[in-house]
Amino acid sequence: MSNNIVQFNEEIIKGQIKELVRGSVEETVNGLLEAEAEKLTQAARYERSEARQGYRSGHYDRNLTTTSGDVTLHVPRLKGISFETAIIERYRRRESSVEEALIEMYLAGVSVRRVEDITEALWGSKVSASTISELNKKAYVNIEAWRNRPLQGGKYPYVYVDGIYLKRNWGGEYENVAVLVAIAVNKDGYREVLGAAEGMKEDKASWVNFFQWLRGRGLEGVKLIVGDKCLGMLEAVGEVFPEAKYQRCVVHFYRNVFSVVPKSKVKNVAKMLKAIHAQESKKASREKAAAVVTELKAMKLPEAAKESRGWH
Prior knowledge:
alpha/beta
């Protein structure tokens, strides 16, 4: 029996497959460009036809970066008619999936240099820092347009607000910044993200500016605002939406209670708290809440009992 073992060079095989896919994409796209040119001129190359609308004048080459690698396009030149391809947008150098990946990497916090290295590894060509910058400018224009869009969903009776703390690089130093977010339920029962804005911190001034910004964009018909017990937010709600009621967020309420409960008892306490909100009426909920407070005291959890008294 032969002792020879067949071995495969995985890297070579991967490279060959990648080149096969890239070559196939290049051939296919160029074939589609030729077909478009024939459709526009209403005649094949060198064909004599009375229906002809234009004439061929050779090709020009351009590069296109795709997710399969760089491909060379042979774009037909036409006389007597302009060649506007529906396949490749004019002057576009990268397909949208590549652009979206570049933008997502940058917004996720990947450094420009790292993005350059990743694009070279994935697509065989390095994207310059200036290209990444231009793509992000385009993304930010769309983001700002969305953030400042008029609210046209009619009345929004239920609005949920919260502050999310993120780290931001400012002058080479990282600092925590509050991003204020509002999600609403419109009159048709559908949820909608109303907006997000930097608040620096969750003080009254930041929340007042945020609520006034939402109101200026068309937020109306608010009956209930749900949020945590942030004092600045509570004061801002009363000032900007005096006609609306406030309700403490159940998730924040649970978290506050759990923070003073030993890990070994969290599961049991969670069931007790959920029982409060499972009642069918406000009266029954209040009675259940009083019973839970008494039970928490009996379990020697006075801080949890104190937090639970303010559940509503």
